[in-house]
Amino acid sequence: NAGVIQTPRHKVTGKGQEATLWCEPISGHSAVFWYRQTIVQGLEFLTYFRNQAPIDDSGMPKERFSAQMPNQSHSTLKIQSTQPQDSAVYLCASSRGYEQYFGPGTRLTVL
Amino acid sequence: GDQVEQSPSALSLHEGTGSALRCNFTTTMRAVQWFQQNSRGSLINLFYLASGTKENGRLKSTFNSKESYSTLHIRDAQLEDSGTYFCAAEATASSFSKLVFGQGTSLSVVP
Q1: Which of A10, A38, A54, A94 is deepest in the core (most CB within 10 A)?
Q2: Tens digit of pLDDT for each residue in B19-56?
């Protein structure tokens, strides 16, 4: 069991560019969660999917952020027109009902 | 508003000693998870509790849902226990629920 896989581990973008982050959940887990970690805000929930359907996106910024789960083996988080304040570690977690297991995160730096 | 209050924010322990971390919840929580974030940034699962007490080696955790708190006890601290510890709670009754994180406790174990 490889655990939750996130790619890339590091991404540097220029202001205004697009960033796409990938997450592969643990096989057999039906829920995928996205969180963001910054020094100021700590760990914050963004959105989650269950059986590929979006369930709760209450933590997602209303503009520029979107997430998809086109199949059970991966989810993407896309940030359009990135801004310096989007710099953070983006964490993906998966679950089959209760305990959540986290990937190593993608460190996004927007210059 | 803030739902998870974690204390202390920082803690220094000599090897072989112990202490307790605490999370207070401002609303009723269904379950709690405890994580250790290591130097590479990975969140390592320590405990998942819906009630009661669990023990694993030198770590013990308790979740009291009625009194809205959880604790993590560390005994006989070792250098490798250094890192940041987070509690995270599930607020809803659903088996799938976003986690609300505390602000973390930075633990430093010194010789």
Answers
A1: A94
A2: 999 999 998 899 999 999 998 899 999 999 999 999 99
CATH class of B4-110: mainly beta
Which residues of chain B lie closer than 8 angstroms to A102, CB-CB?
Answer: 35, 42-43, 45
Residue-wise pLDDT tens digits, B58-67: 999 999 999 9
B29, amino acid identity: M
Q: Could B95 and A45 be called an inter-chain contact, meaning their C-beta atoms sit closer than 8 Å?
A: no
CATH class of the domain whose range is A5-110: mainly beta
**A48 Cα distance to chain centroid:** 9
Is A33 within 8 Å of chain B by CB? yes
Q: What percent of chain A has pLDDT over 70?
A: 99
